[in-house]
Amino acid sequence: MEAKIKVAAVSYLNTKPLLYGIERSSLRDQMELVLEYPAQLAQSLNENKIDLALLPVAAMQFIPGARIVSDYGIAADGNVVSVALFSQLPISEITDVYLDYQSRTSVRLTRLLFAEYWKRDVNFLPAPVDYIDNISGTRAAVIIGDRALQQLHNFPYVYDLSDAWKSLTGLPFVFAAWVANKELPAEFVSEFNKANAEGLHHLDEIVAANPFPAYDLKVYYTDNIHYYLDESKKKGLNLFLEKIRE
Fold first, then answer.
1. Bridge-partner residues for 67, per DSSP?
2. Kind and range of the H or E run holding 195
3. 180 and 108 housed in the same domain
4. How distant, in Å, are the alpha carbons of 3, 71, 83, 132, 196 from that of 189?
């Protein structure tokens, strides 16, 4: 019996539309689906514990042979709402910023935006477990994923990182893409691509299955998150990877 292809992703709300089709596809017999933290995905891929991951794109540079194997991922063209800088004060008064190292991409994007867009020199601090409770005065924090959606109305200043990137570059931003570090069977890749697309036809069903009072998930899935990585998304991705290599 052939070994199953191990596919890994995170279980944030933003991945639900992609996982919907994958979990229901005929590929289930050929693959094993694993859910992990974003930061663990790169390590697991490097150690060959998994074969394919919905990987935060900043981690690609640390994976020998990294290649994007699907036309789908997690991107935004303007406001993404779930990756933002939260503060009690305007950005001109911020001196310290907590960074959640669970997401390497958000960390690199934040540092880049402070250097090139906001042009401010601040202290970056590793985020402790309870860091959201410590946002006060001149101390801000980057919050990502479902927790960011829950905090949108709790702070007077919310700076959307994808929107800031769009203002800086004029391009969309890609947060995660399906990345492998080895050649996968062409037939599997083709079916996997179709499976990713399937969930986008079932958004009402996905929204109904994931009650989330903090934010309208239909708006999130249709306006904020862009799942198809078209040419402009790839252009934005390549520019980001160039900038963080410099």
1. 180
2. helix 186-198
3. no
4. 16, 10, 29, 39, 11
97 and 67 in a single domain? The answer is no
Of 117, 146, 169, the one marking the end of a domain is 169
pTM of the model: 0.95
How long is the chain? Answer: 246
Rounded to the nearest 10 degrees, how much is the dihedral formed by the CA atoms of 106, 108, 114, 116? -120
Write the pLDDT tens digit of every residue in 83-136: 999 999 999 999 999 998 777 899 999 999 999 999 999 999 999 989 999 999
Q: What CATH code is carried by the domain that includes residue 155? A: 3.40.190.10
Q: Which two tokens stand for residue 86?
A: 């939260």
Say if residue 116 is in the same domain as residue 133.
Answer: yes
Which residues, other chains included, contact 20 with Cβ-Cβ below 8 Å and sequence gap of 6+? 198, 199, 202, 205, 206
Compute φ and ψ for 41, nearest 5 degrees: -60, -45
Domain range spanning residue 210? Answer: 5-76+172-245
Greatest CA separation found in the chain?
A: 61
Structural domains of the chain, count: 2
pLDDT at residue number 1: 46
**Residue 185 scores a pLDDT above 70:** yes
